[in-house]
Amino acid sequence: MDELEAIKVTFFQECEELLADLEGGLLAMQDGNDDGDTVNAVFRAVHSIKGGAGAFGLEPLVRFAHVFETLLDAVRSNEVPATPDLVVTLLRASDVLADHVSSARGLGDVDEAVSASMAAELKACTDPNAAPAPAAAPVVVEAAAAPVIEAAPALIGADDALDDDDLGFDFQPMTITIDEQAADVAAAAGNVWTVSIRPKSDLYRKANETALLLRELARLGPIQATLDASALPPLEFLDAEAAYATWTVRLETDEDENAIREVFEFVDGDCDLEITRGEAVAPDAALAALLAGDAPAPAPAPVVEAFEPAPVVVEAAPEPAPAPVAAAPVVAASAPVAAPTPAAAAKTQQIEVPGPGQSVIRVDPERIDRLIDLVGELVINQAMLAQRVGEYGIAPSSNLAMGLDELEQLTREIQDSVMAIRAQPVKSVFQRMPRLVREVASMTGKQARLVMDGENTEVDKTVIERLADPITHMLRNAIDHGLESPEERKAAGKNPEGVVRLAALHRSGRIVIEVQDDGKGINRERVHSIAVKKGLISPELQLTDEEIDNLIFLPGFSTADKISDVSGRGVGMDVVKRSVQALGGRISITSRPGQGSTFSLSLPLTLAVLDGMVVDVAGETLVVPLAAIVESLRPKPEEVRPLGPVGAVLAVRDSFVPLIDVGLTLGYRDSSPPPTEGVVLLVEGEDGSRAALVADAIHGQRQVVIKSLEQNYQQVDGVAAATILGDGRVALILDVDAVISLRRREPPRPVEPTLIAAE
Amino acid sequence: MTRTVLTVDDSRTMRDMLRMALAGAGFNVVEAVDGEHGLEVLSAHRPDVIITDINMPKLDGFGFIEAVRVDDDYRAIPILVLTTESDPAKKDRARRAGATGWIVKPFNPEKLVDAIRRVAA
């Protein structure tokens, strides 16, 4: 059934959200925020997962969720204190619950042993007095006899199949007496029953209705209902909210007493009910007693109405003209019996405005991708048009040029809006991380607490999908290599529990992900010696602290003394760096001995468009990402100072920055023209280092659609991607950081292959 | 005449399940995500029957039922409590708050429609 499948998809989506809420709530509790709202939200998350799972018959999930929920219920009613130890247990239980959800979804399996021991642990926490061991492994034979006694009081009804499952036995709802009666009834067809109903005012207060009860009875067989209105006081003494009527119903049915009682399930306790087999003898006696007692007023005029047994007619069956009292709830009158709190009353007053509710449209992602592609084409097309119009020498103040300006504005707005559709908070990636931290910490014997920041930072969906791997690796690295063992930390005068901070933020048109630990920092001596030992650097090379730190990104570098479960997965930081670079991103590290390290990952907000400066270098057109450019200037001769045989620096205000000829670095030419003949772009790299890039000319600022070079050709050092310009030419987009570091690795190696943009 | 049923549940899955079962049985369905929202939708749509969850944020099922029952305009509307609660105390509390009847989750569409028939005029 398609609709049900669709709801199942919704259910699993909702499970993801609920699991995130659950974890978030538990983490808040861990931070000491265990107010009622948080605990309630945590309970509700598990409760809702169980409810949905029940609807789809996902038994193992339901069973585990039930045990979990039971404990949380005890926590929220303060029967079980939320100690830090308990919260840790609850967090582990939430991981097992997540596994159950994945398993129910067909993704992965649940470790039955882990699940069973977790469930036993939860049960033990719920009821510390219960002996946990025997309960965990019930002996089937014994279960038949023993549990009946202990479980019976807990039952509310046979329809609660869940509990029956949990208690591990089949509950037989019928008592022996009823069994006998039922047998009798079955034997004697066309049995006559007498049902006497005396509603209390509570029945009406709960919006139940005698007429509906009679209608339900009529579904069992033909009925005759007699109204005894003798208790009805004279009008002036009548309480409109009270109930005075008694109904006596003669019912002919093949059903047993249970079926009759079931009709009154909802009004149990709200009416006096007598069900007797046979013609009305006892009720008549009671009636006679009533009449004999106090009936000075008119003799009761019984109303008798016949009901058709056929269920089809039920809707159309005449209302049995209930006594006026039956209509009481409709009559606006004195306060209801159980006076509600004034606060609740005030609430109703306030909320009068019809809420529009949240409306969300679900769209196939492919449609959005197509839209983004089209907008990309539109941007290129608009740029071409602008260029053509410019070539015709049309005055900027002309109507045509002004119209074109407006078009550009509009195009940009459309582009921003379309990109916003695909933007999502990084939360979806972040929420997987607490579990990872718990697992890595327990595997490595460290104590780690994850603090997350900026989960709502939005970034294009295509980027989000590719954030998970680098973040995972950086976190693993931070715990495995960064944090010390609890003993070491204590010895160093630190809290035995290390803190790992994961943060996301927007910075100059990019998203920055930071992973910071308060561990020991990078051991530079060791890193240096390992790099020398592995032949990655020559021993005599003098390196700055920063350069040593960055050695860990070199291919083939690993500082782990022994290969642990965590770091021995064959993925080094070099792989992380390369995968980040492939996305047009950068990764850097800062470290302070004894205080910890910070990995900083920066990625473009979108992999689709970029604001860039179009420049000319040795006859090639290049695009420099605008985000990297601090300023552009024409250097004066006195500002350029030679440095070494080939290098030069530029004096910019109070500091000197290295001059880098882009043409030379990318291999477009063999010697640099004097920098004073060109234009200088002052750029800033991800790590804050500055450089002055020399180009021949600036063409202006433009938004370009990024076309991946790796996908269409191969990765080229110093080049981030390519684009198509307004005139239809391909231009390369400069990777500013790579250009700076290429220059740092002087003497410059020839760059291969030399890529010339296609004409 | 098509009857309107208001479903109040914080779980999207459960709202969808209810909608499927109720729409399939010919009911008009309006939805709310919690008790507070339920009271807003109530005044906008005047349902014939209300089905509500108990555990909800903002205003829970008990509070919602109480709020409906003190309002002279709405207090005669039958309210069915939908819950997985196996705790009889909770069911009793819902009844004391003014619930007309209840449906134990997981429900099947027949059970649901059956319960509505029993309380709806």
Automatic annotation (TrEMBL), chain A:
PROSITE patterns: CHEW, HIS_KIN, HPT. The modification Phosphohistidine is found at H47. It catalyses: ATP + protein L-histidine = ADP + protein N-phospho-L-histidine. It is an enzyme of class 2 (transferase). InterPro entries: Bact_Chemotaxis_CheA (IPR051315), CheA-like_dim (IPR004105), CheA-like_homodim_sf (IPR037006), CheW-like_dom_sf (IPR036061), CheW-lke_dom (IPR002545), HATPase_C_sf (IPR036890), HATPase_dom (IPR003594), His_kinase_dom (IPR005467). Its EC number is 2.7.13.3. Pfam families: CheW, H-kinase_dim, HATPase_c, Hpt. Residues 609-745 form the CheW-like domain. Residues 1-104 form the HPt domain. Keywords: ATP-binding, Chemotaxis, Kinase, Nucleotide-binding, Phosphoprotein, Transferase, Two-component regulatory system. It comes from the Bacteria. CDD domains: CheA_reg, HATPase_CheA-like, HPT. Involved in the transmission of sensory signals from the chemoreceptors to the flagellar motors. CheA is autophosphorylated; it can transfer its phosphate group to either CheB or CheY. This is Chemotaxis protein CheA. It comes from Caulobacter hibisci. The lineage of its organism: Bacteria, Pseudomonadati, Pseudomonadota, Alphaproteobacteria, Caulobacterales.
From TrEMBL, chain B:
SUPFAM superfamilies: CheY-like. One of its GO terms (biological process) is phosphorelay signal transduction system. The keyword Phosphoprotein applies. This is Response regulator. The keyword S-adenosyl-L-methionine does not apply. The modification 4-aspartylphosphate is found at D53. It comes from the Bacteria. InterPro entries: Bact_response_regulator, CheY-like_superfamily, Sig_transdc_resp-reg_receiver. It comes from Caulobacter zeae.
